[in-house]
Amino acid sequence: MIDTHCHLTFPEFAGRVGEVLAGAAAVGVHSAITISTTTADAIQATELAAMHPRLFATAGVHPLYADSPCDWAELERAGGHPKCVAWGELGLDNYYDTPTAAQQRAVLEAQLAHIRQWTARGLAKPIVIHCRKAFADLVPILRASGLPGDRFVFHCFTGDSLDVRMVLDLGAFVSFTGVLTFPGAPEVRAAAKLVPIDRVMVETDSPFLSPQPVRGVKPNEPRFVVHVAAALAVARGGDPAALNAQLDENAVRFFGAALRQPRLGDS
Ligand SMILES: [Zn+2]
Description:
This protein is an alpha/beta fold. The chain has helices at 17-26, 39-51, 72-79, 101-120, 135-144, 161-170, 186-192, 225-236, 240-255; strands at residues 2-6, 31-34, 55-59, 84-93, 127-132, 152-155, 173-176, 200-202. The chain has an eight-stranded parallel sheet, with helices on both faces. The longest helix has 20 residues, at 101-120. The structure holds zinc ion.
């Protein structure tokens, strides 16, 4: 299993990333992707990934950091790092009004324009999307970007069935967190049933959103992605082991072969 989205550069994990990844590996979570939120964080994320063989990184500016200093040249450099598997996370967050919608949108559009240039220069990578209460605003912007729809994953999906149809019509992947396990989120479980089996992924979004039955454990950690996968199996029905194998296959197809589970004897 792979935790496709966590934030191991956050202070909650300072000095204990090796221990956290070992704890994940002990329960079968062989790899994790630490997602960046700012230019400085992207550099830190790639440096952290360089220190841990089964940790990968991304490079992007989160909408809630749209008012932080941003250096596109540095972001491109981080994107070129051998352990950097994706751009992101980027998108829109209408739940919070700071940074303003205009600030978020400006950084999103500039970032998509840069990703188009970087793609043309040989850095074609999948793109991790943050979308909170913003599907109707965001999906048309992504469509207009000209980037292929199947290159996007909508991470931490918290929408309903109508929202997920919009995302699937774009051709994107959909990724679920511990929100899927929360009693108050039946609409997220209903949406999870609608995602084709080859376009679904799981993640923790650590240090946030600890899933049931460890919701009280803070911080959340990559090892707890097993609870998200178990909840997905319950929501969708079917064999949990087969679903887990499919989830791994989807993450490898989306993020690249480097994420493949190392075989015994591989270093
Ligand atoms: Zn995140």
